[in-house]
Each structure stands twice: as C-alpha cells, then as structure tokens.
UniProtKB/TrEMBL annotation, chain A:
Record keywords: Amino-acid biosynthesis, Branched-chain amino acid biosynthesis, Leucine biosynthesis, Lyase
Annotated catalysed reactions: (2R,3S)-3-isopropylmalate = (2S)-2-isopropylmalate
Protein name: 3-isopropylmalate dehydratase small subunit
Subunit (UniProt): Heterodimer of LeuC and LeuD.
Pathway membership, UniProt: Amino-acid biosynthesis; L-leucine biosynthesis; L-leucine from 3-methyl-2-oxobutanoate: step 2/4
TrEMBL record, chain B:
Biological process terms in GO annotation: L-leucine biosynthetic process
Name of the molecule in the record: 3-isopropylmalate dehydratase
Organism taxonomic ancestry: Bacteria, Pseudomonadati, Bacteroidota, Flavobacteriia, Flavobacteriales
UniProt keyword terms in alphabetical order: 4Fe-4S, Amino-acid biosynthesis, Branched-chain amino acid biosynthesis, Iron, Iron-sulfur, Leucine biosynthesis, Lyase, Metal-binding
Listed cofactors: [4Fe-4S] cluster
GO molecular function, one term: metal ion binding
Enzyme Commission number: 4.2.1.33
Species of origin: Maribacter ulvicola
C-alpha cells in the first residue's frame, strides 16, 4: 500500500522514557483479530493506557493533555518482540509519523519504514536531551528533516544526523513502497525462480 | 582475497535476485508460511492491486494463533476469531494455497508443522509473518519473521527486500549438565546478550552443545534467537538433520533427493570465514534457568537470587518497573515462590521431546492442587505421538489433561488467558507484561522446570526431583 510522502516534520513530541518497549505493549495480542487495517490506534499501548475496567490510567503519557504531537520518543530497544505490523499500524493510526529512540528492534523498524512511519535513531545523549527538553516544556518542537537526515531540537537548535539507506529514503520522500519496485523486476524474479534448487 | 564464506553467506548470497546500491537485497523466498493473524491485510493488498499469488505452491497456510484448544470440533465461539479463520480459508482456496485449518489432520503451530512435513529444508529461505520463524534455522535454513507488508510482497513476487544482516557466531562447547535442556541454553545466551544484544545480526550456533542436541532441541534454540534481537539463528545441517528431513511429505525424493543432498552438503561455515562478532561460552556452566522479569533477557540460574538494579545492564528505572510488575524484589530467591499456572507448549517447547521431558518429572507424582496446568501439543502429529508413546496415560494418572494443538497461552489470543496477578511457569518464549493475559505474570522456563513447578505448586529446581527419582 502506497503511503504519505515524508519530507520535513515539525511537531511537539510524546515522551515515553522506558527501555525495551515491546510490541505486546504497543498492541496486545487480543487486539489483533481484525482482518482490515482499521482502528488499531484506539488500542495503542492499551494496557498502559487503560485500567481493566476501561477507565483511563491518568498518569500514562498518552492520557496527559500537556503532551501531544506526531513524534513518539521512546527509550532504548523500542519495538522488541513480535513481528506484528499491527504495532506500526497502531502507532500510525494514533497519529504518529515518526518514532525517535536510541535503538530500535529490527523487525519493528522495517515495519515502520514499510508503512511510512520514520524511525529516527539518535545517540543516547541526544535522546536524553529530547526527554529533558520535552518534559520541562511540552510545547518543545522537534524538526525531522528526511532529505538532510537531520533531527533538531528547535528551541536550542541542537541537532544530530540519522541514518537511513538511500533506497528507503527515496521511497519515503516519494511515498513509494517495495511492491512497486518488485513488480518492476518481475521478469528477473521469474528467471531466478526457474534456477532455484529447492 | 579468500572466497571463504559463512553458512549464512552461502545461503543468503545464493538467494539474492538483485542488489540495490545503498539499499536492501532482493531476496528470493523458497518457502512461505502464513497464519490467520498476520495474513488478511496482505491478501487484501494483492486483491486491491488485482495481482495473483506468484507461486502458490511455495506458500503454506495453517491456523494456529487464534484457535481454541478445547472442543475444536465445534464452531469457534468468538466471532472475530471465527472471521479471521474463515478469511484464511477463503484466501487459501481462492489463490490455490495448501490450507491446514482447524480440525485438519496436519493442523498445528506453523513452526511445528513446517518441519514435521518437510516444508522446512536445509539451505532454504523461509519466511512467515511471525517472529519465531527463526525456528526453522535449526535445519541450516535462513528463516525469519516478517511484517504484513512483506507477507504481501512474498505473495505477489516471492521476494522480499532486506538489507543483509551482520554475522555473529555463538560457540558453546561442553556437555549439558543434569537437568539442563536446550531451552536453558537459549535462556542463558539471552541473559548474557540481553534482548537487544544480537539486533542487526544473524546468528550461527556452533559447538558440541548444539551438535549433541536433537533436531527438536536445535529448533528450541533457534526459535529463541529473536529474543536477543537477532533476526534469526541457524545451525549447520549434519547427518541428524538429513535423517530427520528424509522421507517427509514435502522433501525431495529419488534423484531430486540426491540433487538436494549435493547442495545441502556444502552448507557449513568455511574454516577461515570471518564473523562480524564471535562469542564463546562454556556449556558445562549452564544451569536450569528461570526468568524473573518482563523480558526474556531477565533470566538466571534457578538457584540464584534476583540481581540488584545496579548490577544489570540498562536503566534502573525500567528494571525496577519490571520487578514491580512481577511483584518481586531485588535480591529475592525464586525458589519456593508459589505459582498458579503451568503452560507446556508453544513453538518453543510444544514438541514430543518436551512432553517426554515434562512427563519424566511428573511420572509417579500428582499435579499440585493449587496449579492449573495447560498442556498443549504443538500439532496433531505431536498429539498422536503423546498418545502412542503412552505419555498421555502417565499424564492422566498424575492428574493432567491434554488440550488440542495451537499457540494457546503463549500469546493468549484465544481463551487460554492467565488471570491478572496470577503467576505462571511457562515453556513459551515471552514474559512481556500481559503477554499471557492482561495483568498475568510469566516465568519462562524449560519443560523440566515447568513439570517440577506443576507437581510441587512452587518454583522448584527440577534436579531435586530427578535425584529423588534415582533414589526411588
């Protein structure tokens, strides 16, 4: 599925300074029963957001009015665990377009890139600066510039560059997905398939 | 330059259709497995694009994640689950994909049935929308979990696009001590590396300890590769592998077998091959393991005390949050903690060998009254073996019941949910918060540790019960 183009994102951020946030927290398995990609944002961080009687857990960051925005900032090893793309869908459907962390789990990172959510990996020091700035002043804005591969804390102008390979960068800038690419080389794939041993 | 290659390089490089400058490789996929939870949106995707499944004969579908483990002959009660199962069946039928649904003789957990029917083969590239696809690496395959967008790619083009991971080798020599199983070896490795220690790598397991393991044991180890962040893990195929694979339904026969063997026998790491990272451990030092926290890296030898926050890698806040959820304290001993549930099963420990191990402890003993035990075979084939080997009789005599195959309480999508606050000893793969039901608390362990807990009603070192058995 083609997705929105990503160029420059300027937004406030939601801080979640917890390490090893796993995909079972991002979206628990009991909410994976849909057969279409709709409504997953309602259950983003379900068990951290709601009590078992469905009342809000007031102290969870998504339930605090002062924090909002299109950027989710998480602790180290964000998105570990299951391969469920539903986790990336939930992040997107809730309204986030970018996740910032000092380290991402592999499959979650790939899933984000495949649906147009930009994972931005920064140093542990810069991550701490973001947490400190956003917690001190929730109106703090971040700028994510994909073309320049740069993330900036706007109030201070402090910035850091981040990695993304040229292929995925081009995809995100243009809203292309991998299937478009693969269908274009289908002849090569078919020739290859004829010569596989298994 | 030397042309030496690792096992991983040999299999990966031979499947690259196309290389993209500063981008991923286009990787050809030999075998694709799908289940009901991560496939519907992928099928919807190709439907919307109006394109067919390119190689339906290379894709296999089974229902496992969202299925009940009792009364499978009755209609599935939960309408959402029933709908997901119906969608898989319809999609499989529409596109000509083999479908082993609920009630089918070959039904079971995708990573258990793949090897059982010879879909899993050495040197193959195998993917599935499930992170524990790494299981199939036990056969010297490159096997890893993918997201739903990638499931759609494989359906449409039999390829996915992946940057080539770095190579890591984990060497463990020595013999497994008494009471130690492949699960303990894996939990030990994860406790050393943490849940992110192998992120970005593909792991090869090498050394006597893995050579000596059965294929089932190797599957348990490779299954848990993802829990240290690795995309997958693999073990070079050997006689044991070829013996296991031979004469299964989907393995090559006759001249094709000889041709396949000629390829499979090249699947080992060359002597001088270089790894990006290499780790070595002494296998004889590994104890029966148990986890105490909310990720699989928070594990230790069962007789140890829970580490202090200042002695572990990572932030103290996250660590303390985890212990608070578990209702444990730094410095606590795990031994003797009363437990409520025992789960034997999953793609990690739902094979016949796991039921044999569990039964070796419970034989001649009774299930503790305070324990609810869910014993869930990984497939109908495992279920049949449990009955034919007389294991069911022993379990029944000891007060246990056998359920029907499925993923069950490993991820608790069905009704097999551990209630809030209850403590479960589980042979599955994840102890994340609420993984086995909202508010549930999970201790990951081997089938031997699970059995010891099931008969004593508390966390117990299985070696104590094994000694008693010798005395008796």
């Amino acid at each position: 599925m083609a997705y929105d183009k990503f160029d420059i994102l300027t937004s406030t951020a939601v801080p979640l300074p917890i390490e090893n946030v796993d995909t079972d927290q991002i979206i628990p398995a009991r909410f994976l029963k849909a057969t279409e990609r709709v409504g997953f944002g309602d259950n983003l961080f379900r068990d951290w957001r709601y009590n078992q009687d469905n009342t809000l857990k007031e102290d969870f960051v998504l339930n605090q009015d002062k924090f909002s925005g299109k950027i989710l900032v998480g602790g180290k090893n964000f998105g570990s665990g299951s391969s469920r793309e539903h986790a990336a869908w939930a992040v997107y459907d809730y309204g986030f377009r970018c996740v910032v962390s000092s380290f991402f789990a592999d499959i979650f990172r790939g899933n984000c890139l495949n649906i147009g959510v930009l994972p931005v990996q920064v140093s542990a020091e810069f991550l701490q600066k973001i947490f400190d700035a956003v917690e001190a002043d929730p109106s703090t804005e971040l700028e994510i510039n994909l073309q320049e591969q740069k993330i900036t804390l706007l109030p201070t102008g402090e910035s850091e560059s981040f990695d993304i390979n040229d292929y995925k960068k081009n995809n995100m800038l243009n809203g292309f997905d991998d299937i478009d690419y693969l269908l274009n080389i289908k002849k090569d794939i078919e020739t290859f398939a004829e010569n596989t041993p298994l | 330059m030397s042309a030496t290659k690792t096992l991983f390089d040999k299999v990966w490089d031979s499947h690259v259709v196309h290389k993209i400058q500063d981008g991923p490789d286009v990787l050809f996929i030999d075998r694709h497995m799908v289940h009901e939870v991560t496939s519907p949106v992928a099928f919807l995707g190709i439907k919307n694009r109006n394109i067919p499944v390119l190689h339906p004969e290379k894709t296999f579908a089974t229902a496992d994640h969202n299925t009940p483990t009792i009364n499978q002959h009755l209609p599935v009660a939960d309408p959402l689950s029933a709908n997901q199962l119906k969608m898989l069946e319809e999609n499989a039928n529409e596109y000509g994909i083999s479908y082993w649904g609920l009630g089918h003789a070959k039904n079971g957990i995708v990573h258990v049935v793949g090897p059982e029917y010879g879909i899993t083969q050495p040197g193959a590239t195998i993917v599935c929308g499930d992170s524990h696809t790494s299981t199939h690496g036990a056969f010297g395959a490159i096997a890893f979990g993918i997201g739903t967008s990638e499931v759609e790619m494989v359906l449409a083009t039999q390829c996915i696009m992946q940057p080539k991971p770095k190579r890591m080798r984990i060497n463990i020599n020595g013999k497994m001590s008494k009471g130690v199983t492949p699960k303990d070896v894996a939990l030990f490795i994860i406790s050393q590396l943490t849940t992110s220690g192998a992120t970005g790598y593909f792991v090869e397991y090498a050394g006597d300890i893995f050579r000596d393991m059965s294929m089932e044991g190797r599957m348990t180890v490779c299954n848990l590769s993802i829990e240290m962040g690795a995309r997958g893990g693999m073990i070079a195929p050997d006689e044991k592998t070829f013996e296991y694979v031979k004469d299964r339904e989907f393995t090559p026969k006759g001249a094709d077998w000889d041709k396949a063997m000629a390829y499979w026998e090249t699947l080992y790491t060359d002597e001088d091959a270089i790894f990006d990272k290499e780790l070595t451990f002494d296998g004889s030092l590994i104890e029966p393991m148990i986890t105490y926290g909310t990720n699989p890296g928070m594990g230790m030898g069962i007789s140890n005390d829970i580490p202090m926050a200042n002695a572990v890698q990572g932030g103290a806040t996250t660590y303390q949050k985890s212990l608070k959820y578990m209702d444990f304290n730094e410095g606590d001993s795990m031994m003797g903690k009363p437990i409520d549930f025992v789960f034997l099963g999953s793609c990690t420990n739902g094979r016949i060998e796991d039921f044999r191990a569990f039964t070796s402890i419970v034989k001649g003993r009774r299930k503790a009254d305070n324990v609810t035990a869910w014993l869930v075979p990984g497939s109908h084939k495992v279920e049949t073996a449990i009955k034919e080997e007389g294991i069911l009789d022993i379990l029944t005599e000891s007060g246990f019941e056998l359920r029907e195959p499925g993923c069950s309480a490993c991820l608790a999508m069905n009704d097999d949910k551990v209630p809030a606050g209850k403590l479960a000893v589980s042979t599955s793969n994840r102890n994340f918060e609420g993984r086995q039901g909202p508010g549930s608390r999970t201790l990951l362990a081997s089938p031997l540790v699970a059995a010891a807990a099931a008969v004593t009603g508390k966390v117990t070192d299985p070696r104590e019960l094994m000694e008693e058995m010798v005395v008796n």
